[in-house]
Amino acid sequence: MGGGKARTAATIALAGAATATGFDGTGHAEPQLTPGQVKAKVDRLYQEAEAATEKYNGAKEKADAAGQRLKDLQDQAARKEERLNSARDALGSVAAAQYRAGGLDPAVQLALSDDPGRYLDNAEFVERAGTRQNAAVAGVRKQLREIEQLRGAAHIELTSLKSRQTELKRHKKTITGKLGSARQLLSRLDAQERSRLGVSQDRASRATSVRDTLAAPGSASSQAPGSRAAAAVSYAHQKLGSPYVWGATGPNAFDCSGLIQAAYRAAGVSLPRTTYSQIAVGRRVSRSELLPGDLVFFYAGISHVGIYVGNGRMIHAPNPSAPVRVAPLDEMPFAGATRVV
């Protein structure tokens, strides 16, 4: 018994050692990362999360549109059903009256009539009434076909809406997963390391620092190509220090494309929701042509956007580790720019 127990203990110990050293392919301990490596990983996760956020925003826009179309179709069908019910009630009244009248053969009614002339006049009236009744029946049939068409269209929109909602859930899961991984990595750094690497979550101090290093908003606005671009730049300045929240379009929190949409909305210009739609608005301009108010885009997938404010700088909503702030264009790989107005 003693030898068996010893062999069992040895086997367990060896198995544990194998797991710890990764012999089974699953037990590798994650290597210790330097602060710089942590930041590089976090930056990549934030970029991937932002790309997923723009896909989420696009899917939400389409889901909202499908939901509105579905509501419109349902409203149309309800109105047509009300008219259909009224038409059916009218037909029912006519049918009941005819049934009560007995429905004698016209030739018999003519033969028994004391006033054949009056009967013929009545017969002509009944024929006209029958014609109107036939028209009413045809109208009911037409309404039924229209209602069925509306129901078919509503079914298509409902299928589209469900598909978009599934897509939204998938993108949301991706976003929350990436952001969760980034938070775990950042938790390995102390406050001093996070501050040194530019991922401090002290939003108030960061907002103050970017305001201190930025030229006065008026100087950027005066260089803008028009009053609406100047108004958009002014709005962006007012939102410095606002938190980044994925999917948010203001007024107190933003993601990158949400900030741009809100800035131009305040200037009276309607922009689409996503970065890859916003880049198609207005006129493309080169980096050397940039003026305050131009939209500047980053990464090959056009997954990030900011608003140019002059001197090689932009205002943007970076990621959850930093609030709306001023940053140099060189902070990310430049992909293109457009002048909205």
Strand content: 5-15%
User: In total, how many beta strands?
Assistant: 6
Q: State the CATH architecture of the largest domain.
A: Orthogonal Bundle
Number of helices: 10
| Widest β-sheet, arrangement of strands | 1-6-2-3-4-5
Give the termini separation.
Answer: 88 Å
Count of spatially separate domains: 2
Kindly state the mean pLDDT as a whole number?
78
Q: Could you estimate the helical fraction of the residues in percent? A: 55-70%
Taking the sheet with the most strands, its summary is: 6 strands, antiparallel
Q: How does the helix and strand content classify structurally?
A: alpha+beta
Overall CATH class of the largest domain: Mainly Alpha
**What is the radius of gyration computed over CA atoms, rounded to a whole number of angstroms?**
36 Å
Which term fits the overall shape? elongated
- The assembly state of the depicted protein chains is single chain
Description:
With 341 residues, the protein is α+β, with helices and mostly antiparallel strands. It folds into two domains: 35-186, Helix Hairpins (Orthogonal Bundle); 201-339, endopeptidase fold (from Nostoc punctiforme), CATH 3.90.1720. The protein contains ten helices and six strands. The chain has helices spanning 2-21, 35-101, 106-112, 116-186, 191-196, 203-213, 217-222, 227-238, 256-266, 275-278, and strands at residues 283-285, 295-298, 304-310, 313-316, 325-328, 334-339. The chain has a six-stranded antiparallel sheet with strand order 1-6-2-3-4-5. The longest helix has 71 residues, at 116-186. It is elongated. The chain starts with a helix and ends with a strand. The relative contact order is 0.11. Mean pLDDT is 78; it is low at 4-29, 107-112 and 201-215.
